[in-house]
Write a structure and sequence with these properties.
Helix content is 76%, strand content 0%. It is mainly alpha-helical. Helix 2 runs antiparallel to helix 4 and helix 3 runs antiparallel to helix 7. The protein is globular and about 55 Å long.
């Protein structure tokens, strides 16, 4: 009985490894949606109507994820369950809070529209870069790294 159970588990692992080998990495432009969400706080401070645009981006993100990238849903789920991805998310939140606290401590709080837009650009760019890098590291660790993935200029 125990041998049969072990054989079934090994067969499941093989199937999932074969399925995983067919998965292609998410394109960098997909992470731009998450970049907008990473910049949402400062965008809302820079422009009061930004929340409607952010909600529209979130809806487009969901629609694209469920239609165009439907085959890659397993990859998205795996990335969301990955502890490194959660560490990136918490690290970005800690960076934002720490940067605002540090600037407030030295008397240089971000209060202008330009300052918030700059912070939004930094947070959006950091979010995209870190998620792309996390995906690349995950693919390499699993031995599934594509020959070359380029970051658009």
């Amino acid at each position: 009985m125990r041998i049969l159970t072990k054989a079934r588990k090994n067969a499941r692992r093989q199937v999932s490894a074969e399925e995983l080998a067919k998965v292609k990495p998410l394109p960098v432009w997909f992470f731009a949606f998450e970049g907008v969400l990473g910049a949402a706080y400062d965008l809302c401070h820079a422009w009061s109507g930004a929340w409607t645009v952010i909600l529209a981006f979130a809806a487009v993100n969901i629609a694209v994820g469920l239609s165009v990238l439907r085959r890659r849903i397993k990859l998205v789920k795996a990335l969301l369950k990955n502890s490194r991805t959660r560490a990136i998310a918490f690290g970005l939140v800690a960076f934002r809070m720490g940067a605002h606290a540090l600037l407030g401590a030295v008397g240089a709080q971000v209060a202008s529209v330009a300052g918030h837009l700059l912070f939004a650009a930094v947070m959006g760019g950091a979010t995209v870069a870190l998620l792309w890098f996390d995906q690349r590291v995950t693919f390499r660790a699993l031995g599934l790294a594509p020959a070359r993935t380029a970051v658009p200029a």
